[in-house]
Amino acid sequence: HAMSVRLARLSRSVTFSACHRLHSKSLSDEENLKLFGKCNNPNGHGHNYKGCVARLLISLLVSLQIDPVSGMVMNLTDLHKYMQEAIMEPLDHKNLDKDVPYFAKVVSTTENVAVFIWENLQRLLPPGILYKVKVNETDQNIVVYKGEETKSG
Question: One GO BP annotation here (predicted)?
């Protein structure tokens, strides 16, 4: 009988440090302060770090069939390289709002950071294998993004 194809999900994590300020250009200063509180501090703010730094733990899950020859879903060295390029290079030790063009127009919430990482990884990984991007802002605050969109109109 035909060999069954086995799928596995492979996860890999990285942590980067960055600085950001939650501020929407479409709201007044007063509305921003009300909505984002201390995260709207003009000098940026940090998470569990002194000064203007957020430490975000990113886990990413790819879903692929197990290669019968190598026994692997994907070479981890390749995955590491993609994550360096998609996550660490653009985001690590950066001021998200000032150094990353994407966040010039988009509020640098953890949700939007997850979308940014998803889009970057999609450009590098073989199509259809990225399963989810998980961003831990703190132990309590976790965002999971699986690329879903709703079409409006």
Answer: tetrahydrobiopterin biosynthetic process
Topology at the third CATH level for domain 10-145: Tetrahydropterin Synthase; Chain A (3.30.479)
Sign, CA torsion 87/90/94/98: negative
Q: Active site includes 45? A: no
d(CA 139, CA 7): 29
Specify the 3-state DSSP secondary structure of 43: coil
DSSP state of 101: G
- Specify whether the CB–CB gap between 74 and 64 falls below 8 A: yes
Catalytic residue check, 93 = yes
- Write down the catalytic residue from 20, 23, 45, 137: 137
More confident call, 89 vs 45 = 89
Structure tokens at 5: 């194809």
Choice among 19, 20, 39, 45 that is catalytic:
39
Q: How many other CB atoms are there within 10 angstroms of residue 119's CB atom?
A: 14
- Residue pair 22/108 in contact (Cβ under 8 Å)? The answer is yes
Active site residue 137: yes
Give pLDDT tens digits for 49-83.
Answer: 333 445 667 777 787 888 888 888 888 888 889 99
Per domain, the residue ranges of the chain are 10-145
For residue 45, give the DSSP letter.
B
